[in-house]
Every structure is written in C-alpha cells, then in structure tokens.
Design a protein that fits this description.
This protein has 268 residues and is of the alpha/beta class. The chain has one domain: 4-Layer Sandwich (Metallo-beta-lactamase, Chain A), CATH 3.60.15.10. 23% of the residues lie in helices and 27% in strands. The strands form two sheets. It has an eight-stranded mixed β-sheet, covered by helices on one side. Strands 7-8-9-10-11-12-13 form a seven-stranded mixed β-sheet. A hairpin with an 8-residue loop joins strand 1 and strand 2. Helix 1 runs parallel beside helix 3 and helix 3 runs parallel beside helix 4. The protein is globular, with a radius of gyration of 17 Å.
C-alpha cells in the first residue's frame, strides 16, 4: 500500500512542491503552490484512503484543480472518493468520443459525484492554461485530437514554477506524443512523469529529446503484470543521462523548488 504520511512539509513563500504519491501500479501527483493545490490522478480505488489521508496531513482542505488524465481505473479509480472528501474548484478531464467512453463503475462514480457536487468541468485540450500562484501556471498540451485508444486521450500538463518545469503525461503513447510535438509546444522540463508507467509503447526518442529531463519518475507497482518499466524505455532515458526515481523502489517522491533550484526527497 502507498504511504499515509507525507515526507515533506507545507510550502514556504515562493516555493512549490510536487508530490508523486506511491499508489502501486497507478498514478497520483499533487502540486502545491502558495495559493493553489492541484491533484492529478489518484490510482485505483483501494488507494483512495491513502491519498485522502496524505493530502489532509498536509493541511489541505481544498483542491483548486483535479485533473483526471483519462478514465482508466489505475488513474481515476478512487477519484470519486477523493472528490467527496474535499472542496474542489474544478475538474479537468479529456472530452472522449462516445465510441470509446468507458462504462466502468469507477468512471460512472466519478461522473456522478461531479454532478452531485455541481463541480465545474473543464475539458483538457492543447493550449489551455491554468493560473496558480505568481510565477506558477499549468499549460495543457493534450489531447490534440480524437483517438481510438483511451491512453492517447491523456491530459498532458506542463507545470511551470519560475524557471523550473514538470511534465505530467498520463498514459500517452507514441502517436499522441508525436501529435504534441507537431504543435510546436515547449516540452522542456527538469522532471518528467514517464508516460504509461515506462511502457515501450511510449517515450519515443524524439519526445524525450524535446523534454530533456534531469529526472525521470516512473510510477509503477512491484510486482506488476506488465513488466513496467520496459528495458527499452529505461535505455531511452539513460541516453539523456537523467536520474531515475521509481515509486516501487523509492516510495513516494517529493520535489521542492524555489523556481530556480530543485531538491528531492524520497520515502525509501
């Protein structure tokens, strides 16, 4: 199970923190600035209690933005429980074409709680900008178009704080990566949440080259049935000389930035 106690304190003036919360074979990230809090995904439903406790222990009672990258249960399985527990400013999710809209219980619960609490929904797409604190914002880079694969609908978000940046990629695969590249968007980021848990179907050389990360964060469970992260993907990031962090080995991971420098803490 994921940890229940955050390994880092609240933010100081001018700081931002990015938490990669260990939810096994799933994704959950929390961005905390002086004024705003953003939750991206929350893992399977079995981890919702852990995520809720983690956030509350930081003294957070409001999530200004909740980004549901795409409607697979390892990303949004517990999000209905999380949204029930907090004041939520708005939910960001991709607008998925009807032919691939899931009928899963996790997705149905999510839609129901958003409607019940009358939370505004913003559809994630290329070019949307979310303002956070002074000098901090999130730029959404995808989805660029409609897809047959739900993974490619993942909302890709670039969080910028001063001169530092983090790239959150959900489960985008090489097709969506190329579509993002084709928009000419700035992908440069010191930290990347490696797409699709390190699957070889993602992290094309061109995409990673555009990001040029100093840190690659793999959100994976141990063990997992998929063999994530794949050897080819590890080799791609190795070519760029970046440092590797993995939730299966490091537990939860927290980056602190003052807009210029980065510090990292790990649970393990």
């Amino acid at each position: 199970m994921g940890i229940q106690q955050p390994i880092s304190d609240a933010v100081a003036k001018g700081e931002a923190k990015v938490h990669f919360i260990d939810v096994g074979q799933g994704d959950s990230e929390l961005i905390v600035t002086e004024d705003k809090t953003v939750l991206i995904d929350c893992g399977e439903r079995e981890y919702s209690g852990d995520v809720i406790k983690y956030i509350k222990t930081l003294g957070i009672s409001k999530l200004d933005y909740v980004i549901c990258t795409h409607p697979h249960s390892d990303h949004i399985g517990g999000m209905s429980d999380v949204i029930n527990e907090f004041d939520v400013g708005s939910v960001v999710m991709p607008k998925v074409q009807e032919s691939v809209t899931p009928t899963t219980s996790s997705y149905s619960r999510l839609i129901d709680v958003i409607a019940k609490k009358d939370i505004p929904v913003r559809y994630g797409k290329n070019g949307v900008k979310l303002s956070l604190s002074e000098g901090s914002y999130i730029e959404l880079l995808s989805p660029v178009k409609d897809y047959e694969d739900l993974n490619n609908y993942s909302v890709t978000a670039r969080f910028v704080h001063g001169s530092t940046a983090f790239l959150f990629t959900g489960d985008i695969e090489k097709e969506a990566e190329q579509d993002i590249l084709d928009t000419g968007a700035n992908l440069r980021a010191q930290v990347i949440k490696v797409p699709h848990h390190g699957s070889s179907t993602s992290s094309s050389y061109a995409f990673v080259k555009a990001v040029k990360p100093d840190y690659a964060v793999f959100e994976v469970g141990s063990p997992n049935d998929y063999g994530h992260p794949h050897k080819e993907t590890i080799e791609t990031y190795s070519d760029f000389g970046c440092s590797f962090l993995r939730t299966d080995m490091n537990g939860s991971i927290v980056f602190t930035t003052d807009g210029k420098t980065l510090e990292v803490e790990t649970e393990k």
